[in-house]
Amino acid sequence: MNLGLSLSEQRALTKGSSGVTPWLVPNIDPVATWKRSRGFEGEALEPAGELPISLIDSLTALDVATAVVGYGDRLLFVSESARALGFVKQERLFGEEMLSLVRQARRGNETLEASIEMPRGPLGSGRRELAVRAAPIQSVNPTDSLVLLLVQDESESRLLDAVRRDFVVNVSHELKTPIGALMLLAEAVMSAKDEPDSVEKFAASMQREAQRLSNLVQEIIDLSRLQVNDPLARATLVEVDDVVADAMDRSRTSAQASEIVLVSGGTQGLKILGDREQLSKALRNLIDNAISYSPPKTRVAVGVKREDGIVEISVTDQGIGIPQDAIDRVFERFYRIDPARSRLTGGTGLGLSIVKHVVANHGGEVKVWSVEGSGSTFTLRLPIAETQEATS
User: Fold this and answer.
1) Computed from CA positions of residues 182, 185, 191, 193, in that sequence, does the dihedral angle turn out positive or negative?
2) Rounded Cα–Cα distance for residues 244 and 303 (Å)
3) 176-222 pLDDT, tens per residue?
4) pLDDT tens string 323-379
5) Domain endpoint, select from 125, 153, 181
6) How far apart are CA 24 and CA 12, in angstroms?
7) What CATH number has the domain bearing residue 189?
């Protein structure tokens, strides 16, 4: 496990072969002095005379998330990246495995390493895989042994490896279908070159298959990007109203062509933390899916509400519904309830899989309610932005 430390940093921060290196600092508050002298990206949670300026400088310069834990699991220092990874909440370490590693390192006076899984958010099954090193350091106060935590998120690299392994297996069959159809249609055009009506008919079919192939390739690319890009690592404050408006605008043309009425309503002014484009893509996929499986002269409704710190965005249709034995499978890649209808509408079998990945990557979940013959409701459930939660 490489946590990005140089040899000199490791010697300065962790125990050497001859024991723990004591910190020798004057009887002043170095944190306050240091804050006055330069900008501070981390946060010392209380005046900590046992943290020398050199240590704080080193911690803030590292590319990994860092925290210093004192006696009683009290936090003396937390970097901003540590908060973003979610193992610090309400000024305490979060997760029994993380706490256990710190306590073992302190009791044994030795550096320990572990791979720890943490939830990405309060909902859903999304997980982070964290590489953690806990290293004891000695403070000025001999009764308060400190532990330095160095944490690196390995989720993206592991997901990238999995995507590379599965890519060829998952898409080869799907790509063969439109490519094979295009080859057959091209042969038909050649054989019917003296029959203008037949050429026009085959050319139209070729155009549809080419569009289907283009859609499939684009969604494969989108899904691959979702599996390796962490939206919370570069998160911004996203207006839910903007996401709904954007998704509906992009789906309006297909709705009008299918004689479907799009409506929206619910709570306004809600905000979530994440990637606006990904969230809009997920909602648009749900709306497009609802349009594809609804008869003409019906409506598709998008509703927004807040419930216990969670934003719920629901898409309800009056379509054909989903059989009960298929509900648990609709988010599988390339799974289609009705392959013939999916081919007719140009579906790729990846839309709902993309929805699931977007929501899981934002620390949320997606729920489905459906009655065959009566329609369906898909609901995105996402954590509300903490800044908004605190002020409401």
Assistant:
1) negative
2) 9
3) 777 888 888 888 888 888 888 888 888 888 888 887 788 778 777 77
4) 888 888 888 776 666 655 555 555 567 788 889 989 988 999 999 999 888 899 999
5) 153
6) 13
7) 1.10.287.130
**Environment class of 12 (CB within 10 Å of its CB; exposed 0-12, middle 13-18, buried 19+):** middle
- CA dist., res. 123 & res. 142, Å (int): 42
In a domain, 241, yes or no: yes
**pLDDT above 50 for 285:** yes
The last residue of one of the domains, among 190, 208, 229, is 229
Cα distance between the two ends of the chain: 42
Considering the domain architecture, whether residues 279 and 378 belong to the same structural domain is answered as yes
Strand 65-69 vs strand 146-153: parallel, antiparallel, or unpaired? antiparallel
Largest CA distance in the chain: 97
Residue 2 lies in a domain: no
Same domain? 195 vs 260: no
209 falls within a domain: yes
Task: Please compute the mean of the pLDDT values over residues 250-266 and round it to a whole number.
Answer: 92
Contact 222, 278 (CB under 8 A): no
Residue 184, token pair as written in the block: 């057959």
**CB-side neighbour CA atoms (13 Å) of 197:** 0
In the chain, % of residues over pLDDT 70 = 71
Tokens 């001859």 belong to 18
